[in-house]
What we know:
Helix content: under 10%
Number of domains: 2
Mean pLDDT: 74
Radius of gyration: 28 Å
Amino acid sequence: MKGFVAALFVALLSTVFSAVSAQEIRGTLRADEVRGFVVIACYFDPAIQDCDVDRSDVQAVAQSGDAAEYSFAGLQPGYYLVIAWKDTDGDGEMDLDGEDEVAFHMDVAGDPLLVTPPALGVDLVTDSYSARALDPVAAAPTPSAIVGTWSSAHGSAVAYFDSATGSYMPATGSGVEFTFNADGTYDRFGLLSNSFFSTNNTILVHEVGTYRFDGSTLWLVGVSDTSFYRNGVFDRETKGVAVEWEYSFSIIDADTAQFEETSTLTRVK
């Protein structure tokens, strides 16, 4: 790959490409910052198993942002490998070892895909952009509608793990209350009553941490929790670090929300 890049730039940036057809390849480049990338429509010659510089084309990306559309027109018939490249280390060669930012148009298996014009939707996505897009906590803004205190007067949908027995208790108790703050922190208070091994238990839970909400999914990352158990035989308080949970959460109207499938919450302030 390195062998053809320098010659490709000399040939294509210093001469006018001679179009022999109206065939086109179009798509979108997505990266943390698209400015400084070049998109290469590399004509793949099966005879040499490499790119033919004279039949390839290149386009520089001048705009800023995390997305840029590109379009190649007048391409010759044949197979093209479409590549986006940012020469991060400034050596004029395409480095595939992580020193440069490089993105290939891929098939569903994640392998570089040859395309034939006309071809639309030939998208290019860098690895760093993909990682950011797949991280729901980083990618999704928190709608302000969730900010406030929400309470359930019925059973809580929150399953509870009993560290004494190593088992999960069904959450059939009498209520849960969330306070979601505008700074991304939350408090959760729960009163759960259940029967476990024929023993009636009352569990008070207080958990604090950070949250993210994208309109349909709620992520809670507990920083610490305190639990108080009472079952008529003994009282016990435990403290620990809560884990990360993911719940379905939808705001029905200004005063009502659905938490999981079993709890309806009412805004109390």
